[in-house]
Specification:
Blueprint (H helix, E strand, L loop, with lengths): L1 E7 L6 E8 L13 E8 L7 E4 L2 E3 L5 H12 L1
Antiparallel strand pairs: 1-2, 2-3, 3-4, 4-5
């Protein structure tokens, strides 16, 4: 199932948009063997991927995006 949302960066207050494809059970293709198989994080109204996982890492999260990534993992993985 696909889900999307907006989370606020805890330090700067910058809004980040995310899209996540997740399943009911973990998988070898999921992040750390978990339920998320695809994840994209961008600044709101920006087209540049700050984090992208598509059954493997294309762009790993860095800086404040790591905190947003952690929030998403807690909810969906």
């Amino acid at each position: 199932m696909w889900s999307e949302g907006i989370l606020t960066g805890p330090k700067t207050g910058v809004p980040y948009k995310y899209w996540v494809k997740h399943y009911e059970e973990g998988s070898e293709f999921g992040i750390d063997g978990g339920r998320i198989s695809k994840l994209t994080i961008r600044r709101l109204n920006d087209h540049r991927d700050l984090c992208n996982y598509d059954r493997g890492w294309d762009v790993k999260p860095a800086g404040e995006v790591r905190a947003v990534y952690a929030m998403i993992l807690e909810k969906y993985n």
